[in-house]
Amino acid sequence: MTGSPAGSSSSSASSGVGIRAETVSVIFRKTAATVLDDAKLSSRQIADQLGHARPSITQDVYMGRTTVSRDNAVALESMWLDLAQENSGGKPGVDLDRDDQSSL
């Protein structure tokens, strides 16, 4: 069959829509990894399902980064609040984003 990978035929999932069978396979693997990751399976369990010898391959290629921990956001935000407090001379209510308009 012309245009098919060696030793394979067009899959029913990809026939007629112009998607190669290899692409369908990659999409399916990525989707499966995402579903398993969302189900809170370990990277080892997902790697086993995908046939990877090393979970690091699964993590690097198939598993997405999740949102950053709220603790990280709180720590970084407090850094900016601490800096603002230092720069205001310790005066509460000083708005560092507004220009001093008292001289107008």
From TrEMBL:
Q: Do you know which SUPFAM superfamilies this protein is assigned to?
A: DNA breaking-rejoining enzymes
Keyword Repeat in record: no
User: Where is region (Disordered) located?
Assistant: 85-104
Spell out the Basic and acidic residues composition-biased ranges: 94-104
Give the InterPro entries listed for this entry: DNA_brk_join_enz (IPR011010), Integrase-like_cat_sf (IPR013762)
- GO terms for biological process? DNA integration; DNA recombination
Q: Which UniProt keywords apply?
A: DNA recombination
GO MF entries: DNA binding
This chain's protein is named Tyr recombinase domain-containing protein
> What organism, scientifically named, is this protein from?
Amycolatopsis jiangsuensis
